[in-house]
Amino acid sequence: MRVKDTLNLGKTKFKMRGNLPVNEQKREDIWAENKIYEQRQKLNEGKPSFVLHDGPPYANGNIHMGHAMNKISKDIIVRYKSMSGFRSPFVPGWDTHGLPIEQQLTKEGYDRKKMSTADFRKLCHEYALKQVDKQRTDFKRLGISAEWDHPYLTLNPEFEAQEIRTFGRMAELGLIYRGKKPVFWSWSSESAMAEAEVEYHDVTSPSAFYAEKVSDGKGVLDENAYFVVWTTTPWTIPASEGITIDAGFDYSVVQPAGEDRKFVIATDRLNYAAEQFGWEDVQTLQVIRGRELDRIKAIHPFDNDRELVVMLGDFVTLDSGTGLVHTAPGFGEDDFRVGKEYGLDIFVPVDDRGYMTAEAGPDFEGVFYEDANAIALDKLKASNALLKQMDYVHSYPFDWRTKKPIIFRATPQWFASVDKIRDQILEAIEDVEFLPDWGQKRLHNMIRDRGDWVISRQRVWGVPLPIFYAEDGTPILEKETINHVADLFEKNGSDIWFQWEAKDLLPEGYSNEHSPNGEFTKENDIMDVWFDSGSSHQGVLAQRDYLEYPADLVLEGSDQYRGWFNSSLITSVAVSGKAPYKKVISQGFTLDGKGHKMSKSLGNTIVPDEINKKMGAEIIRLWVSSIDSSSDVRVSQENFVKASESYKKIRNTVRYLLANTSDFDPKENGVDYNELRPEDRYMLVQFNELISKIRTSYDNYDFIDIYKTLLNYIITDLSAFYLDFAKDVVYIEPENSLKRRSMQTVFYKILVGLTKLITPILPHTAEEIWEYLREPEEFVQLAEMPEVANYTDGADLLSKWQSIKELRSHVLKALEEARDSKMIGKSMEAKATLYLDESTKQLVDTLGVDLRLILIVSQLEVEVLSEAPKDAAIFDDQLAVEITPAQGEVCERCRMTKTDVGSDEHFATLCASCAQIVTENYPEAITEGFEEK
Questions:
Q1: Using alpha carbons only, how large is the chain's radius of gyration in Å?
Q2: Residues 611/641, Cβ–Cβ less than 8 Å
Q3: Is residue 600 scored above 70 in pLDDT?
Q4: Which residues of 42-55 are buried (b: 16+ CB within 10 A; e: fewer)?
Q5: Is-above-0.70 flag for pTM?
Q6: Residue 563 CB neighbours (<10 A)
């Protein structure tokens, strides 16, 4: 027998290295085989509901780290709620219609214009389902627990039907209308776009200052006067219908030296203009208030037969330009609005692809709009109208998919009125909680300032607008027809819109006074995809009887304030008068290490699968818990290396606890709270505080606080304190001694509690730990979160032990100084003499704490503070410490230096305590002796 054989050295098969990339997948297969998600839902039947509604990611390509951060965050919340007394089903969803899928098929060689709409839509459908499967596999590999076998897809017939009914309800309320006004138009996509599909970049445009001759001065101006107009889009001059000024500005009529012409310009911009144009000796002939210039006429610079009208508007500024703005109602929202007030034509001489039409004039016909800038400038120069051309840097909208600039273009489109229900929407926002709280103001301002929603798209892969046209062109949006289409879609899917004749899509026997011959046609446009996902509250929450509407929570990226948060709010208020969610959490973007937005199109993403294969999904999940996702997050390989180091600390601590409870059965060996040793009772009370704090952080969705609290507890309270001196108990004391079983009781309770607490974040690891625990649930995911206990002496214990730990830190400092001076090596070679003031001594005596144990010294003496020698280290006038080398020899078993080593005749190398333990528990050692080293 060896001395080592008499120690209770913990053993466990829980490995130091988790081999996560391999073992996680095996564990996920076990979860699927055992239907853990379904079991959890069954366990939670009858409990209060908590529904987190999944905003649908777009089904295109593998997931990136932004997807991972979002879905893991949701999973952490749902797992916690499911283990905390709530029925919390999670239905994942996908946005499956839209332009990006059409573009992908185009890249693969398909030309939709050479195929039937039905055939092209079939290809889109197949492609979308493949992408859903691809992303579902990616999400499942991250350990996301969800209703994977029954997700919601915006292409599902039952979803499309609910979307049509949502549209129908809005039409019934008079919120759907057809109009021609400028919308974001993507020439690269050949379609109108929603605000949420637009991103802004700084661009340099050729701005022009040019003169337009007065043709009818209304007695205010003579006909030798010229308006000095400014534009940043010279290509739109062919569509110019007027000049907009401000009624309250002063305008000067001036004549520079050497000029026969007189120029009209905002008085406050005169000095700037004179400098830019090189005017000298400028004579002011007249100052006129803007309102006096209303409806004066000028000649179009490219067409002497066309007149422009001077209009009063509220969008003219004096920050730049001349105070007179070139106005083309077909190419700008402000231009359109003022043009409508003045009854101007809406002239749009640009086609769907961005090329100028014949209406623009022979010089422009067939020219791409950007190239038309140069032609317009040349024409102005040739007619001596161009006063100055200069580059102008400004923010400009781009198509977020194609990354190409877009234009404002008035086209006939279908709109959903926001204006009619704006006040209701703003009121609904007041009933929603936001995290961060600035989200409320952000969404409020976006709704307050947004225009009506253009919901029609000139594409084919989407849900068709359920609108028919009568023989005289009257659009038909009747409750009867729309609901009939919804019923047909629910049964057959929306493809039938493109396969059946209009008469077959209408209710049997339907007639309309606008179609005396019973002939009807149908709308060819599809709905904006934001209307698809924006209808999910009806297509999912209100449709599935085990969900709740409104949802308790939605959690998405901050871009969704202008996207899904926005669109779903509008449709929900329209159909039900309330917001579709009770609480909104927004996250920032995932950026690369240099702070650039991660985007598949930019090629700077870190793919989760790459980390899964190298380190494991647990590392990504732990990383998600370690970041402040309320703002933008930088992602680099170093982030995951750090998370991996933290994971190792958690894993190694758990391994130590498992190893040292391997011979512990809580039912047979557990020690009651009142019988626990002082240090163990304190650690149990402290762990109870940890449970309370972590659960509060979960409740507040404060993942980073959970991460910090957990790591601090493991490093500071366990590794650097409790487990630091634990080996002198769990290794050395007799197997069934009260001292050892007391500590094991606390070890085990900490193990069970910690495992449950980390399950939402580290489910793979938690299940691995659970296999070594003697708990009734087969899977920790089917257990409940640890409850916060009520220890009557808890607060008192925490306060007193805080003083003990401060005392310990002072002693450890003295030991460190002794080690630095080479007086001792390890702390067990030391004798510590503590000189305590009366209150501290009383505290130690009252607690009954074994100071020698927690200080990890071989010998300890306690004296009164007044007897402290002068060279003792004094701390806070309450404690003096003297460190000296311990007297005696080192016990071969406990490694303490003691004066009674060899006092037992049978064991020359053991101290008296170890000799007694060996004699009582290993009597054969007396006769056989120990093997020599």
A1: 39
A2: no
A3: no
A4: ebbeeeeebbbbbb
A5: yes
A6: 20
